[in-house]
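INFO batch 0412 | record 1 of 1 | parsing
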Amino acid sequence: MDFVKLGRTGIEVNKNGFGALPIQRVSHEVASKLLRKAYESGITFFDTARGYSDSEEKIGLTFTKEERAKIFIATKTFAQNTTDFWAQLETSLAKLQTDYIDVYQFHNPSFVPQPGGEDGLYDAMLEAKRLGKIKHIGITNHKYDVAKVAVLSGLYDTLQYPFNFLSDERDEEIVTLCGEHNVGFIVMKGLSGGLITDSALTYAHLNEYKNVLPIWGVQRESELDEFLSYQIEAPMLTEERQKKIESERAQLIGNFCRACGYCMPCPVGIDIPQAARMSLLLRRAVAKDFLTEEARAKMEKVNDCINCGKCVKNCPYELDTPKLLRDNYQDYLSFL
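INFO prediction complete | emitting tokens
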């Protein structure tokens, strides 16, 4: 079993973190079963967010007080002002049934909160830490510029950022900077929103980076079992796997939707993350799943696009989303 230390936090955990966003989509019973199996198999880092509906509540209902002391919980606030900050913090503590949060993160802000800022957000973090309600201050982001400022500021103990073998040189730089500045690096989007279908491949790649902690979004027991198996025998980055990575990069890298969901909701009801990736999904998943009458009706919604620009404004990857939708729709028609 491989372990990683999260920078200056001193938190040392199994290099398999549990991403609790997907458990909002399953029942309390199923969620608890997944969380307990992860814990009993050696996973001790659980990442959630106030914005993940009942994900925090499911974690809080699963673990006993004794077990809580043996795990690390990271959650997030999307507050834009101090009133919401304190309200969300208290709600998270109550839902998680805990007196403290190990890593409290600003959830994908458009800027880096600083001490003395007019928003008061970072000062609120410091006060929460002084009160013992949080132990470490973190930030999550999808944008290189924001992430780099956060790491170099010296204000953040952890950074959560997308990273996988489709990432570019700038993303590699962020990983390196985190190592140099003793900032814990928490990996999101290790499977690039589902476009990477070989988990052993991405596990082997990420295992080459000694300072990163991948968190895997888990919704099904089979998914959890897959990652637990790598604790027994970690996939190695062999020459064969490296060749496959190069092949995957040639197919996928570039102007594609990462399914982060910040473009949602669409004012006319388009399922943007699915529609904007449809060409890739048809070729990398079971195509018939996307050719049903229900799926076709969802794709037809692309024709309702009013070019409001909301999705473009909110996309952290600065994609021309309306064009992606149109292009994917035309490709979709060729499959019918």
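INFO post-check: Residues 82-96 form the longest helix (15 residues).
INFO record closed
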